[in-house]
């Protein structure tokens, strides 16, 4: 049973989720495909990629203001791609969710600094014969509560469909789910207290439906909330009782004037933390093999 939508903002999120699910589950109509040709294709589109699913709400989609010129960690790189809404691999350039989270003006999020951190690591250790190609799969939608990401709901089904399409379009492996969500679950006490159980079900469902039992999920601990129950959601995030669920904490990072969305500087730091968390996990698993 879904909790009642008590605020107009939630109705906007529901509309966005419905529109996103239609766009992402069904093949794009011809007119939309032609409009999306403005995104440049990549010569690495057919190459095997290390994929990352970007999911959650507005702080994952990105609301950071883009300065001019862009700081280097946010700039496009030929080996960092994103799966557009048309399911074409294109060169990743912010805002990554421009054709996904279409009901809001998207800005800078953590995914580009995350990707640059992984490329930097490969350059430091040596690229070998096959340079690393990263594939980002944006699916985040602002204003969404975690029950809207449950199995059977439009956002969940769209995320699974896009991830499967990404794996089929050029091949590769899914490295992790990057999850930044929960600010909207701080409004109602029922949502906040149910957060931990819902998150664990989400992780288990993704692992089952994507066929990756040990899929890594890196979640970002909340830096802010829309309501009075942020501490309850944060405690739930810290106490997920599943293996291979890692937390990086955004608490204390600078916020925009709305005191909800992370600043550009903060998004840069979150991307760096996500990258370090993934590399630490990768190193630990390789050492056990």
UniProtKB/TrEMBL annotation:
Keyword terms: Hydrolase
SUPFAM superfamilies: SGNH hydrolase
Gene Ontology molecular function: any one: hydrolase activity
Domain Sialate O-acetylesterase: 50-280
Protein name as catalogued: Sialate O-acetylesterase domain-containing protein
Phylogenetic lineage: Eukaryota, Viridiplantae, Streptophyta, Embryophyta, Tracheophyta
């Amino acid at each position: 049973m879904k909790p009642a939508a008590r605020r107009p903002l939630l109705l906007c999120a529901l509309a966005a989720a419905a529109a996103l699910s239609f766009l992402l589950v069904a093949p794009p109509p011809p007119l939309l495909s032609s409009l999306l040709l403005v995104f440049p294709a990549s010569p690495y589109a057919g190459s095997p990629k290390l994929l990352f699913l970007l999911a959650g709400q507005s702080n994952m989609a990105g609301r950071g203001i883009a300065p001019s010129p862009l700081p280097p960690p946010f700039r496009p790189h030929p080996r960092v791609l994103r799966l557009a809404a048309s399911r074409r691999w294109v060169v990743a350039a912010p805002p990554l969710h421009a054709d996904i989270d279409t009901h809001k003006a998207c800005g800078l999020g953590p995914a580009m600094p995350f990707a640059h951190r992984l490329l930097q690591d490969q350059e430091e250790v040596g690229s070998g014969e096959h340079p690393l190609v990263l594939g980002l799969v944006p699916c985040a939608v602002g204003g969404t509560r975690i029950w809207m990401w449950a199995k059977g709901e439009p956002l969940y089904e769209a995320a699974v469909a896009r991830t499967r399409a990404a794996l089929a379009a050029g091949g590769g492996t899914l490295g992790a789910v990057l999850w930044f969500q929960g600010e909207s679950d701080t409004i109602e006490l029922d949502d906040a207290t149910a957060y931990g159980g819902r998150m664990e079900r989400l992780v288990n469902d993704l692992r089952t439906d994507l066929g990756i039992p040990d899929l890594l999920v890196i979640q970002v601990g909340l830096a802010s909330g829309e309501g009075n129950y942020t501490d309850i959601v944060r405690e739930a995030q810290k106490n997920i009782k599943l293996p291979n669920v890692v937390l990086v904490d955004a608490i204390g990072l600078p916020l925009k004037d709305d005191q909800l969305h992370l600043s550009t500087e903060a998004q840069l730091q979150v991307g760096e933390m996500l990258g370090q968390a993934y590399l630490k996990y990768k190193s630990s698993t390789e050492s056990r093999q």
